[in-house]
Design a protein that fits this description.
heterodimer; A: 861 residues; alpha+beta; 7-stranded antiparallel sheet; rod-shaped; B: 340 residues; alpha/beta; TIM Barrel; 6-stranded parallel sheet; globular
């Protein structure tokens, strides 16, 4: 064997010896490996179980879990983390944490330090700051809360970090909501209180403190009844009973008490509080102070009531024209608006003596109760309003210095009305005139507010306008009534005038028949002288009668116009009566009446126009005779009283109905009933009588028991001395001339002209007659008369025109112009004088008066 | 050569002057290596005093130099130390070489270490009375794992296990049982490492080049490679340039390699004094690329240029020229393949 072979064998031997040992080592290693493998498998299984448990845990814990290695690269991302980040586990694994898990401050938006990085650097557990938001892969944000912790291996070495986080968006919202709710509760204006089912207060917010005045420490633990006023304590057991039944109590309006005792109007909402098991353990109570609201509601209701009242009052008084109703409405409204217990409207009038106001309307009290008030005193205490100068509001009249010395006791009323608070307002018209005043009263002091004052002032202002309107309406109505009455009176006057004219025509026509017949007789060829004289007497008598009628007419005209002048002189009563009786005697005797006369035995002298007065009494006696059946009783009785003389004429005649009594003295009136048995006459006699009596300063009245009861006319005259009466005008006597004159008569009434010419010719004058104006002028120039007697109303040229032309001629200045006309008014006379006439005579001309003028030396005067 | 001479002079040289020579040699090596453009360099194992195999146990008082001998084809043998007593402990760890080399470069450094299976041959066949073989194996594994981790801790870009005894095992035991035993032993050591640590581990095998000769070039790769690829490492550095039938070897590699494993094929032959051209290298790469996916393919030298301290068969110039050619040829191949 060579050395090499020996070396090879040694080497082979060494190597192969090792093989056994290596094999043994391998086997040992394999066993160990097997053991390790088994252990590993067990561990793996355990680990797998742990991983599964871990995975399940990670998946089920609801939190997101991200783990990283030491470099901050993601090694694990559970499902929740997947959902929250928007990254799948596969996508995220190996990515830097910042790529997947980006966080910012919720409020500022600024990036927040990665907690894993901090945990890795510090080796400590890191809790993420509050208000952190995760920016998800899609950019949306989630509020999160997390912590990060370092991961250490079995040797305690850092091997990575794990971060657990969860979505706190809901919780944060809930926390925010809770915080907001807590803030709402704390800062609520409402009182929010919780209590046990036994009514023990368990919490108390600041609103409750403000509302009820108790601090939390003062009331928590105390029964809630400390808030309940005694008259409401029964409410609490009922509320608690309802709560135990699980009922809620809403909008329960009641009264609660402040610590200082003030009562509060509150609206309660009470809800049962339940524990986690649902058992009712207490209640939450929200109390809202509705005192102001109630007050506002009451104020609103009051305001509404006031507005409605104002509106209705305004409408009512605007539409009301009846003054009494209007003022009652105003009084009622003012009383209600002001809160007065009673009100009174003092209508401002001057026709009542004594009190400055006349009580016109009352409200809230009986008229009797108001009348018991010392109204003049109260009114005078508020003198300013009564004069319309302002409003007086007294919180307590009994203590009001303006009330003067009146004691409160005297102000208090007997009966049901007393006054402490007073409000007095003037009611002033638009023209500034004080129409009246409102007085409002209340038995309690301090009732009337400034607002009430304004409201009532407003009503008073409306009332003033309405009262003005009502007054105007009444005035207009009164004026209308007056006019209607005037028109009726006018119509009545017209009617009476028509009747008068018919009567006048009748009365004037009556004399004409005997005159015509007498004239015919006197001209008859076979008439004897006696018949002629008789005819002349008849004519004279009838003409005289007609002249009297016309005189009466003229007199009544003068009385109507106030131009009748009395010829007053000292008169003796008996003379007047005798004259009257003499005048009436024919009528009395004609019907065989019995006249009795009673006059004072002693002469009675007084100032009067005896003729006119006799005319009056004659008229009364004549009427009595006329309207009394034959054989009646007529009584004239004169007495002298204290400064008066009374003369009455009574009869047993047909009497006067009561409704006709006021009319008997009117012009042209003859009671209709009388007309059926009219005894003639114009019906102006009594009017003339009244005019004459009143001119004497006396009166005349009539009495009658009615139809068939006779009548009595009573004349009362003042028994004045002469000095007090007007002196009668005395006519001066004039010189009378017998010299015949050249006279021109112009009248379109040929008979009138001719008859007058005959009369003048009989007096020795030379007379020329023409029948129109032109002929008159021609005759004037041709005949050159001294006197022209001219009718006024003539064709072509009237009397005025002739007079003016005559006066304008050289011949006419000295001539005497005499107007003879039917126009007898004073204005007619003035007009005639203005035209140049010297005299004015009213037809029919009394021949004696005309002769007297013509016979005077200077007929032109 | 100064260092070799000094070492040959041996014992009477001062430690200080020897250290200077080591430094110089190391610096020169890394500078030149960097100049070749190689992305990963080594220190040329300048401080492995005598050889790549026994550097760790040199000076072990429990060992004697009369261990078994390894016969080479050129006719010379290398005698290994023999363990005389326990416990077995490394006298030095390869990480100390990294400390030195790092002083001269920042380039990625690959550190070669001897395999546990090679060192298992130190234990005598007859055993040691107070130190059972099982204990030795355990100590061996522990020391190996310590060396690996120390190197990794010092920043080694790769730690390469020299497994030249693979073919030798088949040569010694054609049944393959020894080879399987070596594989098992090495895997026992690798099994104690973490996967990350193992990912930085590589294994080198070759017929054993020494004085331009091999100890087991006659052993067919076909018998070795299936077992070799059972080693639980990430990278395989396989001598290929010197193989007579590279295609056959490549086909075998393609048949046994697993996904995730990288295969660095030798494209220059240290024991061949001729300096290959870059085209040679390019062509060898292109050739290999037909069998090995590009992402799993890399190039290397067939073996170290001076595995034993007295080997002066290959000059530094030749060695670096070959390395340069490897780099250039590989780049040329990359351009052809569109990789890089």
């Amino acid at each position: 064997m060579t050395d090499d072979e020996g070396e090879d064998r040694q080497l082979r031997s060494t190597a192969l010896q090792n093989v056994e040992s290596i094999l043994a080592a391998r086997q040992r290693a394999e066993r160990e490996l097997l053991g390790a493998k088994e252990a590993l498998e067990r561990k793996t299984q355990e680990l797998q179980q742990q991983r599964e448990w871990f995975a399940v845990t990670l998946a089920s814990i609801g939190d997101a879990v991200i783990a990283t290695d030491m470099q901050g690269n993601i090694t694990l991302l559970n499902r929740v983390a997947e959902a929250m980040t928007g990254w799948s586990s596969n996508e995220a694994t190996g990515q830097p944490l910042g790529q997947v898990f980006s966080i910012i401050n919720e409020q500022s938006g600024a990036p927040v330090a990665n907690p894993i990085k901090t945990a890795l650097e510090s080796g400590q557990i890191v809790v993420l700051a509050n208000h952190t938001a995760l920016v998800r892969r899609d950019g949306t944000r989630i509020s999160i809360e997390d912590s990060a912790a370092p991961i250490r291996n079995a040797r305690g070495e850092l091997s990575g970090a794990v971060m657990v986080f969860h979505d706190v968006t809901r919780r944060r919202r809930a926390e925010d909501a809770l915080r907001h709710l807590a803030a709402v509760v704390e800062f609520s204006e409402d009182a929010i209180i919780t209590k046990t089912l036994e009514g023990i207060i368990t919490s108390w917010n600041s609103g409750a403190e403000r509302m009820f005045g108790y601090t939390t420490s003062e009331v928590v633990g105390k029964p809630v009844t400390v808030l309940i006023p005694p008259d409401h304590v029964d409410e609490e057991p009922a509320i608690l009973a309802r709560l135990r039944r699980g009922e809620r109590i809403e909008h329960y309006e009641t009264t609660r008490r402040h610590k200082d005792g003030t009562l509060l109007d509150v609206s309660l909402g009470v809800s049962p509080l339940k524990d986690e098991s649902g058992a009712i353990v207490g209640a939450s109570k929200i109390a809202r102070d509705v005192t102001q609201q109630k007050r506002a509601a009451r104020a609103l209701a009051e305001e509404t009531r006031v507005l409605e009242l104002l509106n209705s009052t305004g409408l009512a008084i605007a539409a009301q024209l009846d003054l009494q109703t209007l003022i009652q409405t105003v009084t009622d409204a003012a009383t209600q608006l002001s809160g007065a217990r009673f009100g009174a409207f003092f209508y401002n009038t001057t026709n009542q003596a004594g009190a400055p106001f006349e009580l016109f309307a009352v409200s809230g009290a009986t008229l009797e109760a108001i009348e018991k008030l010392d109204l003049p005193r109260i009114s005078s205490s508020f003198d300013a309003p009564s004069r319309g100068t302002g409003i007086v509001r007294s919180p307590d009249i009994t203590r009001d210095s303006r009330y003067g010395a009146a004691s409160p006791a005297r102000v208090s009323l007997q009966g049901e009305v007393t006054v402490r608070s007073g409000l007095a307002l003037p009611v002033v018209s638009r023209s500034g005139r004080v129409i009246g005043g409102l007085f409002l009263g209340h038995p309690e002091p301090d009732v009337f507010t400034e607002r009430a004052e304004r409201l009532v002032a407003g009503v008073a202002a409306q009332a003033a306008v309405a009262i003005d309107n009502a007054r105007l309406y009444e005035d207009a109505h009164r004026e209308l009534t007056r006019r209607e009455r005037a028109e009726a009176a006018l119509r009545e006057t017209d009617r009476r005038k028509d009747e008068f004219l018919a009567t006048l025509a009748h009365e004037l026509r009556n004399p004409l028949a005997p005159i015509r017949q007498a004239a015919t007789i006197s001209k008859a060829a076979g008439a004897t002288e006696a018949q002629k004289r008789w005819s002349h007497d008849v004519i004279n008598r009838q003409v005289h009668h007609m002249a009297l009628l016309i005189d009466d007419l003229l007199d009544i005209s003068r009385i109507t116009r106030g131009t009748l002048e009395l010829r007053t002189e000292m008169t003796e009563l008996t003379a007047v009566v005798d004259a009257a009786v003499e005048t009436a005697r024919p009528f009395i005797d004609a019907k065989r009446h019995q006249l009795s006369i009673e006059i004072p035995e002693q002469p009675v002298h007084f100032a009067a126009d005896s003729l006119r007065l006799a005319q009056v009494l004659a008229n009364l006696l004549t009427n009595a005779a006329k309207y009394t059946d034959p054989h009646g009783q007529i009584r004239l009785r004169a007495t002298r009283g204290d400064g008066t003389i009374t003369i009455s004429v009574s009869d047993t005649g047909i009497g006067i109905p009561a409704d006709a009594l006021p009319l008997v003295f009117q012009m042209f009136s003859q009671v209709k009933a009388h007309q059926e048995r009219s005894e003639g006459g114009l019906g102006i006699g009594l009017a003339l009588a009244r005019g004459v009596v009143e001119l004497h300063g006396g009166t005349i009245e009539v009495k009658s028991g009615g139809t068939g009861q006779g009548s009595e006319f009573i004349v009362t005259l003042p028994a004045r001395a002469l000095g007090a009466a007007r002196q009668p005008a005395r006519k001066q006597s004039k010189a009378v001339s017998n010299m015949g004159r050249r006279i021109l008569i112009a009248d379109d009434n040929e008979d009138a002209a001719r008859s007058l010419a005959i009369l003048l010719e009989l007096d020795g004058h030379s007379v020329t007659v023409v029948n129109d104006g032109r002929a008159a002028l021609e005759a004037f120039h041709a005949a050159q008369p001294e006197v022209l007697v001219l009718d006024i109303g003539m064709p072509e040229l009237n009397g005025y025109d002739i007079a003016r032309q005559v006066r304008q001629s050289s011949l006419g200045r000295a001539v005497t112009l005499i107007a003879v006309t039917g126009w007898g008014q004073d204005t007619d006379k003035v007009r005639a004088l203005a035209a140049g006439f010297n005299h004015h005579f009213t037809k029919p001309v009394e021949p004696e008066r005309l002769s007297a003028v013509l016979r005077s030396d200077n007929p032109g005067n | 050569m100064q260092l070799i001479e000094a070492l040959r002079a041996g014992v009477n040289g001062s430690e200080q002057s020897l250290e200077a020579l080591y430094d110089h040699a190391t610096e020169d090596t890394v500078r030149r290596f960097e100049a070749t453009g190689s992305p990963v360099i080594t220190d040329g194992e300048q401080r492995k005093y005598h050889n790549f195999w026994t550097y760790g146990v040199e000076g072990d008082p429990n060992a004697s130099p009369d261990g078994f001998r390894i016969p080479f084809a050129a006719g010379h043998v290398r005698r290994m130390p023999r363990l005389n007593a326990g416990p077995f402990r490394y006298q030095r760890y390869a990480d100390s070489y990294l400390d030195h080399a790092r002083r001269f470069t920042q380039a990625p450094l690959k550190q070669a270490i001897i395999s546990p299976s090679a060192l298992s041959l130190l234990y005598p066949a007859e055993g040691l009375p107070d130190y059972p073989r099982e204990t030795f194996i355990e100590d061996l594994l522990a020391e190996h794992v310590s060396e690996v981790r120390r190197c990794l801790a010092k920043g080694a870009y790769k730690v390469q296990i020299d497994f030249t005894e693979g073919r030798l095992a088949l040569k010694v035991d054609p049944s393959g049982a020894l080879l399987e035993s070596f594989i098992d032993l090495n895997n026992l050591a690798l099994g104690r490492l973490t996967p990350a640590e193992r990912a930085k581990m590589g294994v080198h095998t070759c017929p054993g080049g020494d004085r331009d000769s091999t100890h087991s070039a006659d052993v067919d790769y076909a018998e070795l490679l299936p077992s070799l690829f059972k080693l639980d490492v990430g990278s395989f550095y396989l001598a290929l340039a010197g193989e007579r039938d590279r295609i056959r070897v490549l086909e075998i590699i393609r048949g046994v390699m697993k996904p995730g494993q990288r295969v660095f094929v030798g494209v220059v032959t240290p024991i061949d004094p001729r300096i290959e051209t870059s085209e040679d290298v390019r062509d060898r790469v292109l050739e290999a690329a037909r069998y090995i996916p590009l992402e799993q393919l890399g190039t290397t030298d067939d073996c170290g240029f001076a595995p034993f301290c007295d080997d002066i068969s290959t000059t530094r110039e030749t060695a670096f020229a070959k390395i340069r050619v490897r780099v250039l040829g590989t780049l040329a191949a990359e351009r052809v393949l569109g990789a890089g």
